[in-house]
């Protein structure tokens, strides 16, 4: 009788084992949830980087396209005042929210592509530089360029917007 009492005190009961398995299950669930969230954040970061790269490329094109002398009527097509869905050189249509045409990100393993669309808005600021109190000022020919790249991911529209100013070349 003495030996059976010793084994009874030394072994796990069924309740203790079930509690341990339950605690392990909770920690495993939390771990899996955290890994899924980290994977989602990584995908969002890749898409944000791709959209930023597209917007920066369009900004660079607008800043470097020459000649830009509005006072002489020399304005490249990318710097025409208004809103455009054209991008690149040569210019191609970037699509719309219902028919996106710009590849924001392409997965190198699966080949899946997230498509987006780009709008470029060019505004003439009509800025002047006043030399004196009675002077109407000299025109600066300063254009504001706003580029927005938008894309849909997991049924939500996301976008990146970048702005810059472009002054006349002369």
Helix content: 25-40%
Q: Can you tell me the overall shape?
A: elongated
Strand % is: 25-35%
Characterize the biggest β-sheet.
Answer: 5 strands, antiparallel
Please tell me the overall pLDDT. Answer: 88
Number of strands: 9
Number of domains: 1
Tally of helical segments: 2
What structural category characterises the helix and strand content? Answer: alpha+beta
Radius of gyration: 30 Å
What's the helix-strand series? Answer: HHEEEEEEEEE
Query: Ranges with pLDDT <50 over ≥5 residues?
Result: none
* Terminal-residue CA separation: 106 Å
What kind of oligomer do you see? single chain
Task: Record the SSE blueprint.
Elements lengths: L1 H9 L3 H51 L17 E3 L1 E2 L4 E2 L8 E5 L6 E12 L3 E2 L8 E2 L2 E12 L2 E12 L3
Antiparallel strand pairs: 1-5, 2-3, 4-5, 5-8, 6-7, 8-9
List keywords for this structure.
9 strands; single chain
Molecular structure report:
The protein is an alpha+beta fold and 170 residues long. It has one domain. It contains 2 helices and 9 strands, in the order H-H-E-E-E-E-E-E-E-E-E. Strand 2 and strand 3 form a beta hairpin. The longest helix has 51 residues. It is elongated. The mean pLDDT is 88.
């Amino acid at each position: 009788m003495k030996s059976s009492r010793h084994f009874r005190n030394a072994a796990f009961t069924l309740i203790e084992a079930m509690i341990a398995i339950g605690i392990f299950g909770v920690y495993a669930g939390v771990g899996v949830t955290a890994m899924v969230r980290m994977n989602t954040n990584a995908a969002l970061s890749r898409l944000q980087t791709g959209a930023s790269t597209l917007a920066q490329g369009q900004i660079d094109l607008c800043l470097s396209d020459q000649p830009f002398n509005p006072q002489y009527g020399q304005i490249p097509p990318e710097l025409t005042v208004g809103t455009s869905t054209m991008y690149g050189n040569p210019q191609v249509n970037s699509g719309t929210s219902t028919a996106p045409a710009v590849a924001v990100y392409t997965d190198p393993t699966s080949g899946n592509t997230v498509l987006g669309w780009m709008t470029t808005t060019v505004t003439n600021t009509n800025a002047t530089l006043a030399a004196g109190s009675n002077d109407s000022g000299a025109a600066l020919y300063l254009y504001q360029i706003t580029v927005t790249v938008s894309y849909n991911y997991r049924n939500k529209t996301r976008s990146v917007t970048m702005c810059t100013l472009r002054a006349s070349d002369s």
